[in-house]
């Protein structure tokens, strides 16, 4: 089983170290002490807690999409160059960059500080892990 130190667990899901410690104390995360004497939480319990905190899917939404990867965040940068624009979102710990037409930028009313959702549909998704 995979275990994470408190700070690493917090960084993975975008919460504070204190939040992870509180969840462990409250029994919301499976915690133990590693061979170095540090508190760790199980990866399985962290994954379960993350799913519990995920916003519910809105099945009443008027539009259905085949794309499942949705990242909601705040617009942190907008660059316009002629007929194209680049928009950067900070979605929790993740930075998402989108290229679009300048016309789409205007139609969507995107500006720094706006809330936006990036919807990603990719034919290739690469996953890596540490050795």
UniProtKB/TrEMBL annotation:
Residues 64-129 form the Mop domain. Pfam families: MerR, TOBE. Coiled coil: none annotated. GO terms for molecular function: DNA binding. GO terms for biological process: molybdate ion transport; regulation of DNA-templated transcription. Keywords: Molybdenum. This is Mop domain-containing protein.
